[in-house]
Amino acid sequence: MKKFVIRRLLQSIVILFFVSFIIYGIMRCMPSSYVETQARILSTKPGAKTYQEWIDQLNKAYGLDVGVLQGYIKWASKAIVGDFGDSWYWNLPVTVKFSKVIWHSFALGFASFILEIIIAIPLGILSAKKQYSKTDYAVTVLALIGISIPSFFLATLLKYVFSIKLGWFDLFGVVGRMHEQLSAIGQFLDIAKHYVLPVITLTIISMGSLMRYTRTNMLEVLNADYIRTARAKGLAEKKVINYHAFRNTLIPIITLLGSSIPNLFAGAMVTETIFQIPGIGYTSYQSMIQGDIPFTMFYIVFLAFLTLLGTIIADILYAVVDPRVRIN
Amino acid sequence: MAIFIKNGAKDANYISAKESRRISKENRKITNGYEKKRNRKVIPKAEYVTKMKNPNNVVEFDNLHTYFFSDVGVVKSVNGVSFDIPKGKTVGVVGESGCGKSVTSLSLMQLVQRPQGQVVEGAIRFNTGNEVVDVTKMPTAKMQKLRGNKLSMIFQEPMTSLNPVFRIGLQVDEVIALHYPQMNKEDIKKRTIEMLELVGIANSEGVYKMYPHELSGGMRQRVMIAMGLACDPELIIADEPTTALDVTIQAQILDLLRDLKVRINSSIMLITHDLGVIAEMADYVVVMYAGRIVEKGTVAEIFSNPCHPYTIGLMNSKPAVGKKVGRLYSIPGKVPNPINMPDYCYFKDRCEMCLEVCAGIYPELVQLSPTHFVSCYRHYDIFREEDKG
């Protein structure tokens, strides 16, 4: 097992290099780079140098006067020791900007992830247990609504009902008007209250697929021969489902959940924008359209790292729940 | 127009969406009725405690009907089956695939896929040792106390019948712990290892800690047998226990079953389509065809004097040592569509010994000897002469 993990980690490092190189290449090829935009603005100022002169100067200053490969090597040699440079657009060290915005996104992602699991898995099991019953159809319809409803529509709907009509929550933002005057616990509750609607939005749109997935897998397991054996032993239906069947259903679910770990940090651009939450989704989108290479590089490499980590974790968990894939 | 009419001739398996919806709606009504009856909170004991017709029997199937209410129509998987399993004897049930052999045994275990599958008529009386119950009317909670305990089942596919994520020990322990709640952990483990040794697993301590995928098919079937025997059952149902195994392992497993039957003195209901296995193992034979019993009797009677054309066909289609044949016999045709069964003898369309009367209603069982019964017009006294002539 140890050998397996080490091998996977080494493979991941190689993959990470390729991924970051491809991203760097794409960023460099992007039309309307950050430098070009800046040069255009600066050259229109009265008495300024020409556009071409600004371009040359800025390219030199930002280190874009070299080729893609050299540029990448320069970025990678710094990144490898943890120096990701300064963000061009945000005028802050990349890691500082990142740590400022990530926690909002993480809190949203984590809360909806947990809610998704504790709602979707039991509902999926329930609808498999009562296949073709009214409960099953209700859960299926709910899941399909969740899958097909766009987040901006759902978020707007929630805002209309709960903020405008009922007035339970603020329309947007992460803190209320009286935030500064509140005690520490009060401040925490204030932020939590602002998270409610975005978390509901994210949970509903992500819940459906997990629910259907759990149902399908549970149905498959419930038709397996060993479930019939468990029943033939005289076990109560509850134990058959919650113990014998559930352990087997977990195997594919864990892969799905493992691979969704990066989603915790990926942020939700649309939802964050609608609720005006300064999270990573909004920030990374801004960085990308502005051509902010250092920030985008850091963010995407970070996600790639999490994706690889997620698959390794899923593989390890796979071995924990399924003895057939354990490697000696 | 003529072309359309010709194409409009209904295929036996074709069913329009409207028709299917109507059928499934009706089915749901029927199955809901059965489910409601079964799921009543309190089911009085008087409803399922009965008496045996013959106290020497462990199980009496009495006119059992098990139907599946499918979306294309009602499948009469078991259609009026009656036979007995005497104490300490082995009863073999033979027939082609899809004849209702397994459904008969699953009805006895109350493991028929519900709500589609329902026992609609008849009774299965089972002698638990201290009382006689009709398992078709038993509440599920009571049934769970019988399953694995007094009634145990060995399945066809040892490769998939054990839960892949639990250790062998745990899976055998589970059934002992369930039915003997007073036993402590060490005793249960001791008993499990004892059972594993009983079924001929040499490295029982090691196997106790193994996962199913670490064992071969034969070993897994031994584990299944150990699991089945762990609570000293009155009846062991072996549903094609050797079909998935290779021939040498088959012989070992059959020897084991025969040996164990003597040792723990329980009855065996052996389901198979291998006549060789029946000849070797069984005391009584029940031949099933399309959900009905066509012939039943002792092994000697069935093998020396097969009377139903289907049994004769089965006998002819098994290879015999020392007999040279160019091509092995096979019964022509196939089992009729289970949804629209004819009202005459189900075997008539494949039968090579048909009489004129065979177009009439389904023949009753005819008694040929105290133990030998056959359901065929050829053995009615009045037609026997005609047959010979």
UniProtKB/TrEMBL annotation, chain A:
<dbReference type="Pfam" id="PF19300">
    <property type="entry name" value="BPD_transp_1_N"/>
</dbReference>
<dbReference type="GO" id="GO:0005886">
    <property type="term" value="C:plasma membrane"/>
</dbReference>
<dbReference type="InterPro" id="IPR000515">
    <property type="entry name" value="MetI-like"/>
</dbReference>
<comment type="similarity">
    <text>Belongs to the binding-protein-dependent transport system permease family.</text>
</comment>
<feature type="transmembrane region" description="Helical">
    <location>
        <begin position="137"/>
        <end position="162"/>
    </location>
</feature>
<feature type="transmembrane region" description="Helical">
    <location>
        <begin position="101"/>
        <end position="125"/>
    </location>
</feature>
<dbReference type="InterPro" id="IPR045621">
    <property type="entry name" value="BPD_transp_1_N"/>
</dbReference>
<dbReference type="GO" id="GO:0055085">
    <property type="term" value="P:transmembrane transport"/>
</dbReference>
<feature type="transmembrane region" description="Helical">
    <location>
        <begin position="9"/>
        <end position="27"/>
    </location>
</feature>
<protein>
    <submittedName>
        <fullName>ABC transporter permease</fullName>
    </submittedName>
</protein>
<keyword id="KW-0813">Transport</keyword>
<dbReference type="InterPro" id="IPR035906">
    <property type="entry name" value="MetI-like_sf"/>
</dbReference>
<keyword id="KW-0812">Transmembrane</keyword>
<feature type="transmembrane region" description="Helical">
    <location>
        <begin position="297"/>
        <end position="321"/>
    </location>
</feature>
<keyword id="KW-0472">Membrane</keyword>
<keyword id="KW-1133">Transmembrane helix</keyword>
<feature type="transmembrane region" description="Helical">
    <location>
        <begin position="249"/>
        <end position="277"/>
    </location>
</feature>
<keyword id="KW-1003">Cell membrane</keyword>
<dbReference type="Pfam" id="PF00528">
    <property type="entry name" value="BPD_transp_1"/>
</dbReference>
<feature type="domain" description="ABC transmembrane type-1">
    <location>
        <begin position="102"/>
        <end position="318"/>
    </location>
</feature>
<feature type="transmembrane region" description="Helical">
    <location>
        <begin position="195"/>
        <end position="213"/>
    </location>
</feature>
From TrEMBL, chain B:
<dbReference type="InterPro" id="IPR050388">
    <property type="entry name" value="ABC_Ni/Peptide_Import"/>
</dbReference>
<protein>
    <submittedName>
        <fullName>ABC transporter ATP-binding protein</fullName>
    </submittedName>
</protein>
<dbReference type="Pfam" id="PF00005">
    <property type="entry name" value="ABC_tran"/>
</dbReference>
<dbReference type="InterPro" id="IPR003439">
    <property type="entry name" value="ABC_transporter-like_ATP-bd"/>
</dbReference>
<dbReference type="InterPro" id="IPR013563">
    <property type="entry name" value="Oligopep_ABC_C"/>
</dbReference>
<dbReference type="GO" id="GO:0005886">
    <property type="term" value="C:plasma membrane"/>
</dbReference>
<dbReference type="InterPro" id="IPR027417">
    <property type="entry name" value="P-loop_NTPase"/>
</dbReference>
<keyword id="KW-0547">Nucleotide-binding</keyword>
<dbReference type="InterPro" id="IPR003593">
    <property type="entry name" value="AAA+_ATPase"/>
</dbReference>
<dbReference type="Pfam" id="PF08352">
    <property type="entry name" value="oligo_HPY"/>
</dbReference>
<dbReference type="GO" id="GO:0005524">
    <property type="term" value="F:ATP binding"/>
</dbReference>
<keyword id="KW-0813">Transport</keyword>
<dbReference type="GO" id="GO:0015833">
    <property type="term" value="P:peptide transport"/>
</dbReference>
<keyword id="KW-0067">ATP-binding</keyword>
<keyword id="KW-0472">Membrane</keyword>
<keyword id="KW-1003">Cell membrane</keyword>
<dbReference type="GO" id="GO:0016887">
    <property type="term" value="F:ATP hydrolysis activity"/>
</dbReference>
<feature type="domain" description="ABC transporter">
    <location>
        <begin position="59"/>
        <end position="315"/>
    </location>
</feature>
<comment type="similarity">
    <text>Belongs to the ABC transporter superfamily.</text>
</comment>
<dbReference type="InterPro" id="IPR017871">
    <property type="entry name" value="ABC_transporter-like_CS"/>
</dbReference>
